[in-house]
Amino acid sequence: MELIIAIAFLVAFVFVMRLFGAWMLRIDEVIKLQKEILNELKLIRSNQK
Q1: FRET label pair with 42: which of 18, 19, 25, 48, CA 20 to 30 Å apart?
Q2: CA torsion through residues 43, 37, 24, 21, sign
Q3: Left, alpha or beta for 36 (phi > 0: left; psi -120 to 50: alpha)?
Q4: Which ranges constitute the DSSP H helices of the chain?
């Protein structure tokens, strides 16, 4: 019985870590896109002057 609980805990832990990793990667992608947008806006602003 203890072995089943240990295996279930391990599987749950791996699943949660995968979800956390995917969440962190999406945040990194959003930050990267925001930096690109900011650079484009700066370029447009510098061309208007």
Answers
A1: 25
A2: negative
A3: alpha
A4: 2-48
Q: What is the pLDDT of residues 1-49, one digit of tens each?
A: 899 999 999 999 999 998 888 888 888 889 999 999 999 999 999 988 6
4-17 pLDDT tens trace? 999 999 999 999 99
In this structure, which amino acid lies at residue 15? F
Residue 25: phi, psi to the nearest 5?
Answer: -65, -40
Report how far residue 9's alpha carbon sits from residue 39's, in angstroms, rounded to the nearest whole number. 45
